[in-house]
Amino acid sequence: QAADLAKKIHRAxxxxxxxxxxxxxxxxxxxxxxxxxxxxxxxxxxxxxxxKMLDRYIKTEKAHPAADRFTTPALADVQAVVDSLKxxxxxxxxxxSQRASGTHQSTVAATKLLDLLQAAAVQIVVKQCDGTVTxxxxxxxxxxxxxxxxxxxxxSKPASA
Length: 161
What we know:
The protein is built from 3 helices and 2 strands, in the order H-E-E-H-H. The chain is mostly helical. A two-stranded antiparallel sheet has the order 1-2.
């Protein structure tokens, strides 16, 4: 909604200030200062730029008498969209920080649990299996996998001339 609203306002600015684009800066728009398209009223790009422009637009419109304000879009509609967008951004930021905090807490808990499981495995190996890792550890929920004892063959050396 904010992007569509920005486009509507941009069209109104182009229509109203086509001959004097610098005046659109009062409503939060940037105007190209150099190049072939000098004097072009630029459409804001990105959420932050749109929100900044809409805030400026609202302030400028409120400063003008009601008779001198732009009729489309209505100031109340612009204000409602900006308020909604700010609320959504606030909730998004809060949720993002809560997720980060939860992830950190889970990582800390998982690290502690891993340490405890390793300590339990050591205790079981020492007390129940006489210090030897055996398939009997499966009784306590540990998966024991046999390793191969073969050493990897060394790479053959090229014959010297």
